[in-house]
Amino acid sequence: MSKLRLVYFDFPFWRAEVPRLCFFIAGIDFEDERWGVEKVMEKKAELPFGQVPVLYVDNRAVAQSGGIIRFAAKKAGLYSNDDFDAAKIDEVIDFATDVTEALIPAMMEKDKAKQQEMRKDIAEVKIPKYFGSLEKLLKTNGNTKYFVGDSLTAADLVIWSLSRWFTTRVLDGIPTDCIEPYQSLSEAIKNVDKHPKITEWKQKYPKFYSA
To answer: Running DSSP on this structure, what letter comes out for residue 156?
Structure first.
C-alpha cells in the first residue's frame, strides 16, 4: 500500500480539508502534515508549484487542489466510475475554485472602506449568484440532498467545507445565515454535517469546529 502524506497549513480550508476528510471517512491511513508559513517559505523551492497543498504518494508528488481531491476521492470511494457523474463532481470542485478566486481579493484588502464595499458586493450580488447556482444543481439531481447521485461524494464535502467560509464569520460583513434562504443547499450541508465521520472529525479538531 502506498504511503500518503498530505501537506498544508494548519487550518480547514477546503482545498486540503476535503482530501483529509476523504481519507478519514474511508479509514485510509495518511500523514496529515501541517506546516506554518515559515516552513512553507523554507520549502517553497522543493514544492512542485511553490505552494501547498501537496500530496505525496510514496516519493511522488501531486499538486493542485483538484488533482489531490480527485485522487483522494477515488481512493475513498467518494468519486464515480460513471463518466458523466465524475464530470459533475469535477464541476463542483471547479465551481469552488471559481468562488475562492472571486472572494480572495475581499479577504486580502487592507483598506477597511474598500474591504466593506467588496464584502457588501459579495453579500448582495455574488452570494445570490453562487448559492442560486448550487440550488439549481441540487434540484436537477432530484433533491436527493446530494450534488451527484444519491450518496456522499467529494462534491458534497467540497461545498460543506466551502460553506463554512460564509457561516463562521471568516468574512466579516457577510451574514452568517446567508445560506438559510436556499432550502436545498441548506439541507445538503446539514446532511453532510450529521454524517458520523464528519461528527468524529469535528470532535477531533474542536479549535476549528467549535461553532
So the answer is: H
* Omega before 105 within 30 of 0, i.e. cis: no
Q: How far apart are CA 123 and CA 120, in angstroms?
A: 5
Q: Cell 436545498 belongs to which residue?
A: 184
For the segment 23-46, what is each residue's pLDDT rounded down to a tens digit?
999 999 999 999 999 999 999 999
Question: Using CA atoms, how far apart are residues 11 and 31, in angstroms rounded to an integer?
Answer: 15
Q: Which of 59, 77, 62 is nearest to 23 (CA)?
A: 77
The whole-number average pLDDT for the span 144-160 is: 97
Cell digits of residue 197: 465521520
- CA 117 – CA 124 distance, rounded (Å): 11
Pairing of strands 54-57, 60-63: antiparallel
Strand pairing class (60-63; 4-9): unpaired
Residue 141 cell numbers, joined: 439531481
